[in-house]
Amino acid sequence: MDPIGSKPIAKPGLAPVTPTAPVARVADGVSPQAAETVRSSAVAVTREMAAKPPVDTERVARIKKAVEDGSFPIVPSTIADRLLAFKLNWKPDDAA
């Protein structure tokens, strides 16, 4: 009788994975000026994204208006399915 739970998968005849040669870092072949340019552009993008709110306020306003008007499609079974999928870390569109 097999125990309940997971057990390691072992297939006869398969060799263990052998480590490969170390991979060179990207920065090893890049000039310091190029690395600084990339770093400064990354900082600029980060600051630009931090300046904007993480929420699309226009979309939120449209959804709120649709809910108030009664034109937003609220399907309780779909909401329940999505909440359960989120809680159980399922993909909501997976086949049952």
TrEMBL record:
Domain of life where this protein originates: Bacteria
InterPro entries for the chain: Anti-sigma-28_factor_FlgM_sf, FlgM, FlgM_C
One Pfam family cited in the UniProt record for this chain: FlgM
A single BP term in Gene Ontology: negative regulation of DNA-templated transcription
SUPFAM superfamilies in alphabetical order: Anti-sigma factor FlgM
Domain Anti-sigma-28 factor FlgM C-terminal: 44-84
Keywords from the named record: Bacterial flagellum biogenesis, Cell projection, Cilium, Flagellum, Repressor, Transcription, Transcription regulation
Function according to Swiss-Prot or TrEMBL: Responsible for the coupling of flagellin expression to flagellar assembly by preventing expression of the flagellin genes when a component of the middle class of proteins is defective. It negatively regulates flagellar genes by inhibiting the activity of FliA by directly binding to FliA.
NCBIfam families recorded: FlgM_jcvi (TIGR03824)
Family indicated by similarity: Belongs to the FlgM family.
Protein's recorded name: Negative regulator of flagellin synthesis
Gene: flgM
